[in-house]
Amino acid sequence: MESLKNFFGVVFKGNSSENYPLLLTFAYIFALSLIALFTFVSHSITNYISDTQLERAEITYQLRSQSILVMEISRYASDYYNDSMRYDYIFMEQSIEKLESSYNQTIQYINTPARFDLGDAKETLGHYYFKIGFDIANKMSMYLKFSKEFANFSDTSSSQERQKVLSQLNSGQDRLLIELLNAAQADFQKETIDEIQSIMNIQLYMSGGIIFVILLEALFIFRPIIKKLDQYHVTIISQAMEDTLTGINNRRAFYKHSEAFFEKAATENKPFTVVLCDLDKFKSVNDTYGHEVGDEVLKHFAKTLTSALRPFDVVARLGGEEFALILGNTTPKAAAHILDRLLEIIRKNTCHYVLNDGTEGSLKYTTSVGYYVCHPQKILDVDTYLRYADLALYDAKEGGRDRHVRYLPQKSDDNDNSEEPAVAVVSEKADDEDRKYSSRATDHNVEQPA
Q: Which domains does the chain have, with CATH numbers?
């Protein structure tokens, strides 16, 4: 303290011109200290908000998952008791494992001391899990205990013990548990929002002190941050247009790409083809092998489509096992040739998979295809093209699957109010249709070939 007094005494007495360098040094050190302090506090708050949001979002997801899993376990247990179907047992076992894992993760979060916590969100959650009157932890432990006991019974057992355990699962405790979990989730989210809002208010109050360092931070901090945000923006946009399972375009991206594709086709006056693919008997794959194998088949099919088609063709997953394609610069004959080759590749290309538990296997599958060849001078909306392709896809399914069928519209199809049924033709007639294509290029309404 004495040295500080001596320092100020030297600074503020005597000739100002002599003391100016020392005063400037002091001001620079003081300003630099403020810059470091405000910047550190501001960035710490930002990081805390970001980390808190991520952590709380995960816990909120776990709470929601627990309520859904409790509902699923009760339903699967009842179905398994009544029907003795093996897949109900498998789904029940999987749900029990997920519920136990999610519950343990939540308990670990509650019991872990907070490094720096400004709100009551964790305390509120602990109140729901451990306090009398709510006691989710005890109720969840009992529910898991009864679930595991029920899973250990034989599927043919009709003993009183099995009935008693089932009644424990469906006695209303499951609904009470779901209600408590939903209430815990709602209050936890509210406390989190309040906490983040309070922290953001503190940050707002500090903004006045940070204004004078903006120019300095703009050069060394804000510019890299803005660059990183731009990268995040590009990543988010990309993820919004990407199917999370297969990595190809999703429905949103398909509609966006189709607009540009149609415009380019009209400008270049080149025909194109809209295609719908639907995996044959895919539900039986999920029912027989499980959804994990089904997901591997979908990813394999998406990869096959991407590698088999041309770079300028559009490949997208619309949902479930349904995929959509747009084949550029494609006449009826060319479309049939491409789809013949695609079906052959799919038949020969077995899906080899390795599951998370190390299980390996392989599975053959096929797909049915419906498509519509579009003329560039009479562009319709993409939903109309998909409807045409879907009608042809239906005929492909009805005709035995593992085939492609081309949709050939009647004149009434150009009328939005038409109720007249559409005509679909098996695409093996594409050679004949291709010869006729140029002659009817100016007329979108075509007749079924002989």
A: 41-240 (1.20.120.1730), 251-437 (3.30.70.270)
